[in-house]
Amino acid sequence: MTLLGTASDIKLINDDGLRLDGRGFDELRPIKIEVNVLNRADGSAYIEWGGNKILVGVYGPREAYPKHSQNINKAFVRARYSMAAFSVDERKRPGPDRRSIEISKVVSEALESAIIVEQFPRAEIDVFIEVLQADAGTRIAGLTASSVAVAAAGIPMRDLVVGCTAGKADGQVLLDLSKEEDNFGQADIPFAILPKTGEVVLMQMDGDLTVEEMSKAHSMLDKALKHIYNLQREALSKSFTDVVAQWGE
Amino acid sequence: MKRMKEIVLPGDEVRVDKLKPRQGVRKVGGTYISTYLGVLQKSDEYIDVIPFTSPYIPRKGDRVIGKVIDVGPSMWILDINSPYTTLLHMNDSPWRVNSGDLKKFLYPGEWVYAKIMSVNGIKESWITLKDVGLRKLDGGAIITMPYTKVPRIIGKKGNMINMIKDTLHTRIIVGQNGLIWLDGSPENVEIAIDTLELIQKLAHGEGLTDYIKEYLEKRRGDIVGNSK
Description:
The structure holds two protein chains of two kinds.
Chain A: E1 31-35, E2 43-49, E3 52-63, E4 76-83, H1 98-112, E5 123-133, H2 138-152, E6 162-169, E7 172-175, H3 179-184, E8 187-194, E9 199-203, E10 206-207, H4 211-245
Parallel strand pairs in A: 4-5
Antiparallel strand pairs in A: 1-2, 2-3, 3-5, 6-7, 6-8, 8-9, 8-10
Chain B: E1 7-8, E2 20-21, E3 25-28, E4 31-34, E5 38-42, E6 46-51, E7 63-71, E8 75-79, E9 86-89, E10 111-119, E11 125-128, E12 135-137, E13 141-144, H1 150-154, H2 159-168, E14 171-174, E15 179-183, H3 186-201, H4 208-220
């Protein structure tokens, strides 16, 4: 197992200024979002983001249990991030661990700032994020898909949540880190906003960046987030226009 | 191809103009935004966002269909297809009930058509069976639809639902929470369910009533005993 910042002689950026997978510094991996893929869930989404494959199911709002967890002023959002045993190279021991508990927490909080929770006192909204295949940036891909699934469940929201990562590898600021860049790079920043207002709902930083590098990363993210937001919108509208396509017949 | 209403997403700006914003529209700063994924609906006075699907929240005066899920010493607890359960007190039932033998009248798993009497600030609600048309539902079949489609299923002044009832000789009760009770011959109930599902699927298109009329006549002709 390798860790962030581990010294290695892997060259992450070649002499032509391209990354291992042939992308430029500010290029995203291909993203595909599908809506309402699960029949039993109130809302669901599936996202493929580079090598990430993530399934999200939303249940609720429903009366919160255990009863002492109920808040009489608002609903609470309980996201559960979980990685499948087969999602990574070496088998992941199933069940919650330190990392997935942290991700569940930050994702719940990011979603809670977008959902109008005051409309559902005493309730809970469950968001199950199942990572089927992991390839760096799963928390942000999971969050992006979750917000689509929540919207598809008909839960009132202020805005969608859209996220992306940036970071630094081989001394260069890069957008949307791949697995190698994440493992052997110098920094990794998951970043999520409410696109209409630009409010930041999730930002973490693993590693170090200078102020200049940070602002460079931010300007890359800004552009990328707009693109991802449009993909979310397309996926959501498409899932409902399809239904009407058979209309004229 | 028929025209489709405009789709809006959460956070999208809604241009209100001179209309009054109502359901699914929220004021943020100086602008109005949609809070749902749904379609924009403008009437003469109001502007609404009708969500494609949405959880049902009990409202005073709504007539709903509920399923008994638990029985207490003086209350029945009912599921009304909502995040919140509702309560039916024995004094709000049409029967003379003694405390403790509520199970003689309504048993878990049975259905009622009831009216929501009151809802408080934390969405606790109480229903009553004491009004015209309200009763326990014996027999028949229950289906679930998104409650946002109920106005479409009923149609203007009930013309859609009456058309289905008359053509298929089926008794139908539509609860405002999206549960629908149907009773009639199995063949006709089956057609009615298919029709309701079609309405739900096509609810956001325009010119639906004519389309459904055609569909009903086509389907009904298939069944021996229906043609007169």
